[in-house]
Amino acid sequence: MNSPAHGATSPAAASPAGRSPWVWIPSLYFGQAIPYVVVMTLSVVLYKRMGVSNTDIALYTSWLYLPWVIKPLWSPLVDLFGRKGGWVVWLQLGVGVALASVALVLPVPGFFQMTLAVFWLMAFASATHDIAADGFYMLALKTGQQAAFVGVRSTFYRLAMIAGQGGLVYLAGQLEEQLGSVVRAWQIVFVALGVGFAVLALWHRLVLPRPAVDGPVRGRMTGQVDDQVGAVTAAGRSPVAQHLREFVTVFVAFFRRPDIGLVLAFLLLFRLGEAQLLKLAAPFMLDAAAQGGLGLSTSQVGIVYGMVGVGALTLGGLLGGWVISRIGLKRALLPLMVAVHLPNLLYVGLAMALPQDLWVAAAAVAVEQFGYGFGFTAYLMFMIWVARGPAADADQANPHQTAHYAICTGFMALGMMLPGMWSGWLQDWLGYTTFFVWVTVATVPSLVVATMLKLPADFGRAEDAR
Fold this sequence. Notes:
Elements: H1 25-49, H2 54-63, H3 66-70, H4 75-80, H5 84-105, H6 111-140, H7 143-179, H8 182-207, H9 222-229, H10 239-255, H11 260-269, H12 272-286, H13 298-327, H14 329-341, H15 345-353, H16 358-388, H17 401-430, H18 432-441, H19 444-450
Helix pairs in contact: 1-2, 1-6, 1-7, 1-8, 1-12, 2-17, 5-6, 5-8, 6-17, 7-8, 7-13, 7-16, 9-10, 11-17, 11-19, 12-17, 12-18, 13-14, 13-16, 14-16, 15-18, 16-17, 17-18
C-alpha cells in the first residue's frame, strides 16, 4: 500500500479501461459521510441519551465543524504530496481507529470531554479525507460524468447519513433495551463502525482506479505559481519556499474571482436554516410532549430516519443529478433550492400538532428527505463549478481544483457551524414551534443570492444532452 507521502502514479499504473464509476463512487461517498454523521449527528443522539442538555449539545458539537471550516488551510498539501487515492485509504484506516477509541472512553467518568477530544481527531481525519475524495472524483471523471454522478454521490452520502442517524440509532436503541445499558449499547455500535472502516479501506485499496494525473501538483505548476504571486522565477528556490508559494497561490487564485462576494454569500447562506434544524431535529423527536417534543424512543427515531426516508432520499438524489445533467445548473438552481427549503415547514406542523402516530412523523421526514436529496445536488454542483475556475467548460481547467473545492466546503462548514452554535440556546428561548418558523424564514436569504449568480448556461449538462 502506497503512503500518501510517496510519489505520483505513473501512466502505466492507470486502472484498466472501462472500470465503471459505479464500482467505487457509491462506497467512496458512503464512507465519506459516515465519520461526518458520527461526529455531527450520531454524537447528538448519544449525548442526549447520556443526559447532556440541548444547549450544551448544540454548542459543543457545533464546534466540531471547525476542522471542516479550516481544512482549506491544509488542503493544498493533498495536492502537493502523493496520490489522492493513497490519502483516501490511509485516512479511512485512521477514522476506523478513532471510531474504536470512542467505545473505549465511553465508560470513563469524564466521557463527555474525552469523547469530544476523540471526535475532534476523527473530524480532522474526516475533513482531510473529504479533500482527497472530492479531488479524486474530479480527476477520475470528466465534466459530463461529474454531472451525471453528482446525484449518485449525493444519494450515497445521504444514505450513509440515514444509516448513521437512522439504522445505527435504531440498533443502539434495540441494544439499550436488550442490554439495559446505554453505555454498553453504544460501545458495540462504535466497535462495529471501527471494524467496518477497516474493511472499507481494504476495498478501496483494491478497486480505486489510478488516473495518470493523480499525483503531486508541485513541479507542474512552477510557472503558474510565479505568475499568480508576482515572482520572477522559481528556479533556484528551496523546495520549502517553492511549496509555500504554491500554497499561497491556491488562495490567491480563489479569492481573485470577480464574483467572489456572491460565491461566498451563497456558500454561507444556503444551509442557514438547515444548520439550525439539524442540531435540534433529533432532540425534538426524543423530547417528551411536555417539553414540546414528539416523545419518540431511540429506536423509533432510527425507524423514522433510517427506514422510511431511504427510498425518498434515493429517488430525490438521483432525480436531482439527472435534472442538472439534462438542463444544466443555471436553469435547475432555483427549483432545486425550493425543494430543499420548503419542507422545513413540515417541522412547524409537527411541533404544532405533536402527533402521536409514528407514521405521521415518518411521512413528514420522508418528504423532507426527498426534497433534500433532490435539491442538495445543486449545491454540490455549484461547488464543482467554483472549483473548476473561470474556464469551467474545459476538463481539468484549474490545476488546483481539489484545494478550491476544499475551500468551498470549508465555507459550507462555517455556514453550518456558526448558526448551529446558537441553535440550542435559541430553541430553549423560543420553544420548538417558533424555532422551526424561524428556521423556515432563515432560508430566504440564500434564494435571494441565487437570483444574482451568473452561471454558464450549459454547465453541468451531460455531453449527450447538448
